[in-house]
UniProtKB/TrEMBL annotation:
Name this polypeptide is given: Leucine-rich repeat-containing N-terminal plant-type domain-containing protein
Signal peptide boundaries: 1-25
Residues of the Leucine-rich repeat-containing N-terminal plant-type domain: 31-72
Organism superkingdom: Eukaryota
Family of the protein in this entry: Belongs to the RLP family.
Lineage of producing organism: Eukaryota, Viridiplantae, Streptophyta, Embryophyta, Tracheophyta
Species for this entry: Papaver nudicaule (Iceland poppy)
UniProt keyword annotations, A-Z: Cell membrane, Glycoprotein, Leucine-rich repeat, Membrane, Receptor, Repeat, Signal, Transmembrane, Transmembrane helix
Amino acid sequence: MGLILRYNMLLFLSLLAIFLTVIHGDTTTSKDDSQWLLSIKTKFIDDRRPQGVLDNWSSKVDICSWNGVTCSLNQVVGLNLSNSGLSGSISSEFSNLLSLQVLDLSLNFLTGIIPSELSKLQNLLELHLYSNSLSGIIPPEIGLLRKLQVLRIGDNMLSGEIPSSIGNLSDLRVLGLGYCQLNGSIPVEIGNLKNLKSLNLQKNSLSGNIPQEIGSCTQLQLFSVENNNLQGRIPASIGKLEALEILNLSNNTLSGTIPADLGGLSNLKYLSLLGNRLNGAIPLELNQLSQLNTLDLSRNNLSGIINISNTQLKKLESLVLADNFLTGEVPRQLCMGNSNLRKLFLARNKLSGGIPNELLNCSSLQQLDLSDNDLTGELPSSIDSLQNLTDLLLNNNSFTGTIPSQIGSLSNLESLFLFHNSLTGSIPAEIGKLQRLSVLYLYENQMSGTIPLELMNCSSLTEIDFFGNHFSGSIPSTIGKLKNLVLLQLRQNDLSGPIPPSLGYCKSLQSLALADNKLSGALPLTFKFLTELTLVTLYNNSLEGFLPESLFQLKNLTIINISHNKFTGSMYPLSGSNNLVVMDLTNNSFSGPIPTRLAESKSLIRLRLGENFLSGNIPSEFGLLTQLSFLDLSSNNLTGVIPIQLSKCKKLEHFTLRNNKLTGMIPSWLGSLQSLGELDLSMNKFHGPAPSELGNCSRLLKLTLSDNNLSGDIPLEIGKLGSLNVLNLQRNNFSGSIPRTIQQCTKLYALRLSENSLTGRIPSELGGLNDLQEMLDLSSNSLSGEIPSSLGNLIKLERLNLSFNQLQGNVPSSLGILTSLHVLNLTNNSLEGELPSSFSQFPPDSFLGNEKLCGAPLSPCSRSMGSVRKSLSDTAVAGIVVAIVFTSTMICLTMLYIMLRIWCNWRRVSISNSDGSSTGDEYKKGEEKWVYGNDHQKRIHGEYWKVLNCMNVLASPEQVSSNTCIFQLKANNMP
């Protein structure tokens, strides 16, 4: 008995000693933890919340009651400061909390790195640092936390590679590294994590292949690597992960075919492979995924037919196969039996045929998108079977026929997209039953008829787009009932009548497009209520009258285009908004000055006020419009000079002041507008020289200075405009020669220099402008010399005008090969010679005023002269002609001398052999043989023979003296 008592006492004392030791030890540990936590507190800043989370961390309060602290046996085993508004860094002193099992600092504003000292927390089971602003690498020492089961450090700015040491965490269940900036490949050591259930690596910059070793993580339920740069094939080993429920490999660059092994994932509920480069057919084995709820294979290169069936996929709710190259018809087997399909997206493939009736058995279907395919046929009248349909997208196909009236039974319909088909007929009145309809797009069809009044009953409508149809009649007067309307697009139809005043009660309206119709009348005063309006396009109608002054209240307008109407009066009411980006009032009858208030729209990019009756000066305040790229003030009555303040508009690309009454010199600062692509200052009263600084506008495509009073030489700097397509300087007073530097404008399409005072030759360098096509017009100048044969190189040229100059010489035969030439004018020059044979196609009046030109279509040229001209130069021809004339003259004189000698000899013989009485008769008979005609002719011939007699006397020294002949000639010429 005493022995037992002594034993019990000894046991009691031992237990008491152990208890006291434990108590003493715990107290010491608790005291140490509090000191460390108070030190850690100094590293945090918790002023993001009205009441600091760490306010009760004090040595005066029991540590186990501190916010976020969890104790066990008086030891700190858990610290949860998630979503506490903390900033600052993670202290390395956390490593002194040796009993810590859970550390959660997620959803804060912490910065800096993850301290490698955390690896000393050998009892740590969970580490949550996600959703902060941590940077640096994942410390490799993290692999020393052998007991770790949850590691969630994603949604930070972590970089570098995933350390292979993570493969040492054999107890790890959850690994979350998503939404960081990690790079490199997925380490193969991931395969060592046999207990891993969730692996989230999405939205990083990981590359390389998905390792085959992933197939060893047999407990894996979630695997997500979306939005990385992974490549290569999908490993077949993934098919071994039978516990997998979510597989997300989307938005990478994976290639090859979809492995049939995925059909073995019997628990898979979510499969997304979208946004890769997968090809081939959809594996039949995917039909074995009986638990599948969502299948998304969109945005790949898949081909073949769609062989998905709901025979086994009874739980399938979402099927997305859009943006592939799938062919065949819309599958009929998707809605066999009881279907749970709610979302079917087959858009942007190459599907053909019509909408199968079997598809209409999918009564659970809520969203149907068959857009952008090659579907044909009519819309089925039994479409009303899809009673749960909220979105119907059939746009960009080739559907024909009319919209079935049964569509009005789809009471849940919110979006109806039928645009860009070949639908005809009118809008069914039954569409007015769709009380939930929000978006109605029917644009780019061939529909007609009037807009039904019943449509105004669709009070939920926010967007209507009927662009590009043939709707006629008026805009319904009750359109104001659509109070929620944000967009109304009726452009390019045949609508007529006025804009209904009730439209002003659509106070949510932001975009109004009624252009390209036949609308008339004035703008309703109720427009002032459209205070949310940002876009108005009313162009190409017959609207008229003054603008209501109340339009000035539309402060949100950014785009206004009311061009090509009949509006009058001041444009000032449209200048109320400071947010204008585009304003186009072209081709109306606005008058008065341009409002300087437009300069307060600092974002204005395009301003077009041409073809009105605006007067006054160009506002100098426009210099504030530094974003302006298009300024058109043409065809108005503007006066004064171009204000120098416009030199600040450095982004100007199109600048046209054509057809005004502007004066002064063309300013040299225009050369500083480096973005200028079109400059048109024609039809004004500018004088002085064209500034050489224009050569600095290297992007200039069109330069038109015609119809002014410009003078002086054409600047040589024109040659610096290497991008120029059109140069028009006609009808000015330019003098001097055509600058040869124009040859550097190799992209010229049209060159017009006519009606100036240019002199000198046509530069042969113009023949190097190989792109010259529309026109080469040098007419009405004082150009001289020959037409350069190099112009025959302009094989694209369609019109050539060299008329009213002083050109000489032949028309070069090289011009005959200009097969594109269909207008030619060479009139009023001094051209000569034969025309090229191909010019016979042109009318004769193309060559008037050139008297020495010949050949078709003019009168034919002499053969000999033509042949000589073709073979000899002008100098050689002249020499030959002189030689021929000289030779002919000498021959004639020689023959005449011989004849006279013969006659004189005969005469001498006759005198010596006859008596005097017979001499006169013989002479008279010889004379009568040549004399005939009237008396005048007789007299001439008589004198001719008397001269011959004298010549005979002169020719023979043996005869009587010359005085006798002279006397006889004078005597016979006596009257």
